[in-house]
Amino acid sequence: MFAFQFSSLSEFLQMGGVYTFHIWAVYLLFAVFIGYNLLQPKMVRRHFLREQKRRAARDEELASKTNTQK
Amino acid sequence: MWLWFAKLGSPRWFYELSDKWLPWLYLSMLIMMSIGLFWALLIVPEDYQQGQTIRIMYIHVPVASISLACFPLMAVAGTITLVWKMKLADMVAQSVAPIGAWFTGLALATGAIWGDQIWGTWWAWDARLTSLLIQFFLFIGVIALRSAIDSTDAAAKACAVLAIVGAINVPIIKYSVDWWNTLHQPASNFSMDPVSPNPPEVWVPLLVMICAVYIFFAIALILRTRNEILQRERRSQWVIDLVAREKNV
Question: For the segment B33-75, what is each residue's pLDDT rounded down to a tens digit?
Fold first, then answer.
């Protein structure tokens, strides 16, 4: 039951030869799908944190300016 | 019980709890996915009819079956939003829509690639394929509807209603292969018998992949929901403190 189906790396990459493209295209799409859905939220989060930090810094600057004017 | 329910509705509580869950979810996804992919690509024997293309099943079936779980989840979250006005439920409903669209799109794409090999055609207006395509458009519709309405509360209600009504499509997709004579095959039964057409050596790795993809779905949903929590609660003190604590962004 637990036997390797391929005897070499090139045989594995060929996947029987006839439908090599079909099989690897499915696995490639799956990799893109996993990668995008894990990285996209991380990018959004980073963008949000940067934006909020920028805002906080600007608000602080404004507050200190109004204080010195008084 | 009610205290737990009320707490779960608190976005901050969910955010802090998910901080603790995420590392474990990542770890279990990594383990399950490695075992599943290794098994599916290297160990599963060739199918007597399909040869090596049987390996497409280990991606297509988990993705397609979980794509069917997204819409009911969105409908349940929508119901909670309408009945109890729970903020977190709407954030989950909003986060699950793009993930559901991705899952459905990938199920259609991998199905087309498989279909080209096994049926000799990329697409057929078969009941299963068509109803899944409708689900894809429904997800796009929910996303578009939300972005078209400016008020968060009004968008939440409209999307909740569309999610509940659209969920009628899910049993149609599920049972289309039994109700109509489709090109798509009906679900296969798992069998413990090693000489049956669907022995354990074929379905056990499939089960591992289904678990792995489910964990991935949970992670993707949690990540998006956390972003939505931060965005909507950005004026509350705990998010301001959290932003201040974050270094190197």
Answer: 999 999 888 888 887 777 788 889 999 999 999 999 999 999 9
B240 reaches A (C-beta below 8 A): yes
Count the neighbouring beta carbons within 10 Å of the beta carbon of residue B75.
21
Contact B43 A12 (CB under 8 A): no
Q: Report the C-alpha gap between B84 and B168 in whole angstroms.
A: 22
A46-50: long-range contacts (C-beta < 8 A, 24 or more apart)?
Answer: A46/B249, A48/B227, A48/B230, A48/B231, A48/B234, A49/B243, A49/B246, A49/B249, A50/B249
Say if residues B156 and B117 touch (Cβ distance below 8 Å): no
CA separation for the pair B31, B246 (Å, rounded):
29
Give the number of A-B residue pairs with CB atoms closer than 8 Å: 94
B101 vs B140: CA distance, rounded Å: 7
